[in-house]
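Design job #97: recover the sequence.
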């Protein structure tokens, strides 16, 4: 599944896929950060994008191997 496909899913579609390990929280986080970075210059939607904090293993996943 492509990163843009991931971002089109609803939370009710994402949740079971994470639970079944079809996608990882890290993969979803990376897709969201990538999209935010690409769109920020045009939309100016965010004051600050905290990508390093979002990628911190303790925040992204209880299991860093996901």
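Job complete. Output follows.
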């Amino acid at each position: 599944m492509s990163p843009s496909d991931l971002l089109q899913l609803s939370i009710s579609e994402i949740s079971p896929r994470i639970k079944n390990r079809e996608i990882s929280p890290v993969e979803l986080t990376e897709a969201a950060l990538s999209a935010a970075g690409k769109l920020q210059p045009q939309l100016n939607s965010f004051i600050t994008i905290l990508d390093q904090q979002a990628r911190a293993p303790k925040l992204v996943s209880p299991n860093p191997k996901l």
